[in-house]
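Q: Hi! First time doing this. I have a protein sequence and I read that you can turn it into a structure. Is that right? Here it is:
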Amino acid sequence: MVLGANRNFSNFLLLPILLLELGAFLAKRASLLWLVAVFLLYLGVSMTTYAWSYLFDYAAMRGHGAQATAQIINTERHETRDGVGSGGVSHAIALSWHDEAGMTRQFGCIVVSERFWKRISAGERLAVYQIPIWYLEDEPSARP
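A: Yes, that's right. Below is the predicted 3D structure, encoded as structure tokens:
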């Protein structure tokens, strides 16, 4: 008796038939696939551009940014549906500082990481009211 002689090889014939059916299904919906492919390409390009813009702002701040001590003037607690943060909660802070010219500058609603929030708070209450920041002197709308 040959080993495996009693196996049913009809399962191996099923694979090419399934591949042909899948090809016919995709050919009928080629326009939908192109639409999905173009959307995914657009999504990838836009997300990459968004990430690079933050990277370049950060590099500019490190290169020729100014350092200051900012006051935390407001905190916000946000309940999230997707579970970001601990237990579906994220935190944001608003900052105020004096630039090198003596002008008061503010930037609000900066979402902070859970790790940073634990460093500046005691539970849900703020414990640290001043933090060091880097900011761009020539761009008032840039995030510190």
